[in-house]
UniProtKB/TrEMBL annotation:
Domain of life of the native organism: Eukaryota
Signal peptide, first to last residue: none
Classification via PANTHER family: METAXIN RELATED, METAXIN-2
GO BP terms: mitochondrion organization
Domain Metaxin glutathione S-transferase: 194-255
Pfam families assigned to the protein according to its UniProt record, in alphabetical order: GST_C_6, GST_N_4
Protein name: GST C-terminal domain-containing protein
Any one cellular-component term (Gene Ontology): SAM complex
Classification lineage: Eukaryota, Metazoa, Ecdysozoa, Arthropoda, Hexapoda
Residues covered by the Thioredoxin-like fold domain: 41-141
Amino acid sequence: MASTIENFYQKTATAAMKDWPRDAVLYQPYEEEQILLAENASCLAVRTYLKMLNLPVALEQRANAEFMSPGGKRTKLPVLRVENFIYAEFDHIVTFLEKNFNKSLSAPLTPEEKDQMRSTNCLVEHLFTTAEQYVSWIDPEVRNTVTKKRNGCVFPFPLNHVQNWRKESAVRRQLRMADYLHEGIDTIMGEVDHLCQDLSSRLGDKRYFFGDSPTELDALVFGHLYSIFTMKLPNNVLALTIHKYSNLNQFCKNIDETYFSVKGK
């Protein structure tokens, strides 16, 4: 009953929103010291999408960003605060912007193209996130030299070890449910390579996946690929797997220059 009332209030309140507020804030972990590969990809995808829509938002880096859920549980990142409401992760934020502000990059697409885009979004998010989590938490060298240090750096001893154990356990459960926990790295990289082949073929020599204008898919793919390219890890198997697709490399360069360079801002 309480959740029903809360949902009704939220829909009623947001339905009145017409103009993008000036005080919208996007929360994420600290980039230099704390954020992990999969989290960085998700946060960058949302930041890119907001830039593509020309919606200004203040970026705040918080040590407790993943614990900002109103329910007190871990939140999928990033976290967007608009007015008095909080929305988290790429898909939910995209839906919120479309329903409450009529902001969408995929509006010009045909129904068939929209279906194709959504199915590709799901595959990209699932497979790249799985591979990023696997490399970060299952590969022992990356886990012990990078992941645990970054994930635990904002917590005092011995809480840092407790938080690392909790996060690793949660990731292992997710990988087990997806039937990837006991797969070898070669198997997972083979699936990533197959996905990159498909993305490279879809992109071709176009600037974006559906022509001259970006969509949600472009923001999502850029978030994952650029994060993989730029985050330094002792095992760079993911970067090596996608680096051989020259048009995907150029795709990342184009978006970075258009939306994140000083000239493109």
